[in-house]
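User: Before I run my own analysis I want an independent prediction to cross-check against. Here's the chain; please return only the structure tokens and, at the end, one sentence I can use as a sanity check.
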Amino acid sequence: MDRFKALVATKGEGGLAIGWQELGTSDLMDGDVDVRISHTTVNYKDGLALTGKGPIIRRFPLIPGIDFAGTVVASSNAGFAVGDGVVLNGWGVGETHHGGYSQMARVKGEWLLKRPRGISAAEAMAIGTAGYTAMLCVLALERNDVTPDKGPVLVTGAAGGVGSIAVSVLAGRGYHVIGSTGRSEEEAYLKSLGCREVIARSELSSPGKPLGRERWAGAIDVAGSHTLVNVLAMTQYGGCVASTGLAQGMDLPGSVAPFILRGVTLAGVDSVMCPKPRRETAWARLATDLDKAKLEAVTVTRPVEDVMALAPEILAGKVRGRVVLEVK
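Assistant: Structure tokens:
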């Protein structure tokens, strides 16, 4: 495919401009593997990039999109051959290197993973960075000995992309999952994924006390700010909170009390530069631990051309679960 369609972000005197263009393979950036993209997705980070509400794109012109799945069409990397199904999450793609909102990509082979057996390209993007991050969070809880017998696990932003996958995986592994959401109408949806309890986001989003009643053995938080502070304050002795988002804010206006009085661990989870062995573990676990029926239930499929309309919706919390974008 010498000529291909891509969504290109440019920046000039009028500010950020994003539109579809026809490009050639000479417009691609350096890399040793060319991929024909078949599917991508939209994450919260993509929403920030496409609306200009966050400094995600750091060079111009650039093709946004931090995820993609597709098939290798050319390779000088010994680890990949023509015809291999691959998936990419992060590594600065869609930020400083051309990303997934395109029919073609050229990237470093070290950034790619071979798509796990049993996961289709569409399913890989139903999972996407959100689902892969959710599994990294589950692994962080397990490393810190948060097992189902220790007590409930809280998931904030439970109806979102990370939250939906996290709830499904945790429930499937036998955890008592408490979901927190700002959308009360999603209670039935969250319980269908495996939540035993659903609480209102407002219980956690206001300034709170340094310590509260011990309510959960662990948590996965996508909000930050006061929500994360309150989650920590109500974590049981010796528990762990995996932090991976900033939907409420980047600040952490809290106290050291949970750490020095209850021995709570705050585990930061980064999906962008996560080492390849941990990525491989996360994707292998997704292939075995994620209920495909539940994945399908949280997923809608749209053409990639809809991504600009979806960007403000995901920032406003109006996107339930995951969106797969087909690239034709």
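Sanity check: The CA atoms of residues 88 and 185 lie 33 Å apart.
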